[in-house]
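TASK: fixed-backbone design
INPUT:
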């Protein structure tokens, strides 16, 4: 697999066939599913109906066996089972935090791994979804950024993260009533806009009104500022936009986020101003990790307000207490300074809640995701979690938000 340099779109590895070479239909869009069903010899006049039925069972009911598709005739079910599979990736490890957060280490057919995280809250349940194995951006404060980029995830592998979470949470019996995964954020491993086509296809499957039925208003895509694809995202996918800003001066942002050397602050903020569908009722979210002595001064807070006003952005700022990970050179800003930063931005007329860290005890908080090819012992994982918790143990701040957006 060729690893591309920073700023270049990675190549998707070809599908590895199952041992029996049956086609895994999980992750096919409607047209692909229809073509596959027609190809195996289903009567032409039945293809449209069978496609609708299979789609419903796949994405609305979450079944993994054709035998469960009870409104399809036995002979057609047998034909489907002869040629197709419905296969989820393997969950290598599921970790459950004391605060209810769940982290899934998922292994795909080629042996590569990525992580997804479910964060429960009082008024919602958010699934943080990965778009790549590794990442090409090398942001210095992000644990995922220490990994090399391996490859893009396919649309099927992105959709599978939603399916796995719903399996674990027991959501399929009542697919749309009392659901626990109410929101998705494309904020896991990788840069979603460097995997645009697969992310778009996956989200269209998730948003389909006859399947999972998740509204585009409940989906947020986070980007580090891949300017050429930002407008395209608004036009073609139409979900909420979050931008990993993390600094208000080009020199600082370039130091901690190398992508800024390619797409600087001015370009990124202009792209935000032009994002289709952004307005006061549907604001752009700026993610801002609070790094002690790096980006957390009073002057930084005032400059943040100035920039948002300059570009007339309908925006809010999520202040993220830095979540440490083993080997990092950064420290979380003092809580008092985070609170002062929040107050200064609020005084400028811009919402700036402080995100309550979630899942730190299982290394599932923002910026902590990193899959490992080698298996770690439970003792090693426990030591890492203890180190992370000890580094940030303190009281909670005000202006607190438990939401990701």
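OUTPUT:
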């Amino acid at each position: 697999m060729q690893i591309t340099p920073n700023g270049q779109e990675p190549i998707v590895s070809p599908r590895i066939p199952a041992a029996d070479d049956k086609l895994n239909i999980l992750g096919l869009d409607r047209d692909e599913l229809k073509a596959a069903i027609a190809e195996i010899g289903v009567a032409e006049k039945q293809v449209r109906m069978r496609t609708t039925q299979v789609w419903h069972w796949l994405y609305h009911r979450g079944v993994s066996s054709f035998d469960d598709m009870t409104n399809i005739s036995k002979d057609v079910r047998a034909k489907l089972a002869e040629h197709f599979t419905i296969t989820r990736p393997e969950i290598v490890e599921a970790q459950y935090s004391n605060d209810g957060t769940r982290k899934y280490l998922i292994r795909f057919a080629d042996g590569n791994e990525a992580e997804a995280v479910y964060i429960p809250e009082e008024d919602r349940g958010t699934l943080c979804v990965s778009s790549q194995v590794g990442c090409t951006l090398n942001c210095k404060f992000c644990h995922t950024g220490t990994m090399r980029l391996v490859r893009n995830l396919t649309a099927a592998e992105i959709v599978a993260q939603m399916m796995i979470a719903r399996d674990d949470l027991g959501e399929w019996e009542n697919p749309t009533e009392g659901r626990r995964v109410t929101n998705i954020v494309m904020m896991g491993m990788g840069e979603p806009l460097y995997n645009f086509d697969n992310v778009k296809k996956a989200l269209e499957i998730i948003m389909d009104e006859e399947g999972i039925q998740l509204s585009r208003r409940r989906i947020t895509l986070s980007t580090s500022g891949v300017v050429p694809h930002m407008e395209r995202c608004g036009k073609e996918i139409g979900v909420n936009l979050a931008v990993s800003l993390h600094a208000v001066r080009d020199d600082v942002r370039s130091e901690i986020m190398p992508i800024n050397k390619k797409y600087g602050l001015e370009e990124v903020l202009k792209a935000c101003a032009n994002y289709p569908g952004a307005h006061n009722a549907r604001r752009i979210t700026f993610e801002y990790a609070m790094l002690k002595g790096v980006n957390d001064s009073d002057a930084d807070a005032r400059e943040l307000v100035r920039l948002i006003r300059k570009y007339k952005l309908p925006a809010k700022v999520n202040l993220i207490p830095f979540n440490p990970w083993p080997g990092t050179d950064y420290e979380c800003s003092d809580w008092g300074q985070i609170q002062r930063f929040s107050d200064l931005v609020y005084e400028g007329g811009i919402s700036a809640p402080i995100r309550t860290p979630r899942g730190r005890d299982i290394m599932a908080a923002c910026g902590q995701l990193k899959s490992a090819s080698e298996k770690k012992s439970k003792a090693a994982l426990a030591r890492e979690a203890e180190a992370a918790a000890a580094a940030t143990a303190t009281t909670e701040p005000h202006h607190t938000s438990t939401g990701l957006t």
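COMMENT: The CA atoms of residues 15 and 110 lie 8 Å apart.
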